[in-house]
């Protein structure tokens, strides 16, 4: 049997948010996240305690949206990909008005979507020109 102090320390360690060693360009500040936390927590079931740092899950979702990487390629310093996917699925469910919690949170956070690379921007221009020529 474990000593009571050790059990207490283990519980504290599990509840303390894990700090990532690496920051990503898609990350937002914790202060900005606190502004959108109430929106995201609307999807949370109140029956069991949260065991993951919601900030880290949010940053992982932003990373995925920005990079377009596969779920399983999510960097290992984020929560497990299945956990992030589970929250993403909950947050993506649309309400009666046709808007998801994810969309509301992204709008409130000021997120503007993935940045275009030069090649993507050029391809968009080329496609637009091609479409205009086909209409004539």
TrEMBL record:
It holds the Pfam family DUF4096. Residues 125-136 have a biased composition (Basic and acidic residues). Residues 29-93 form the Insertion element IS402-like domain. InterPro entries: IS402-like_dom (IPR025161). Residues 110-136 are annotated as: Disordered. This is Transposase.
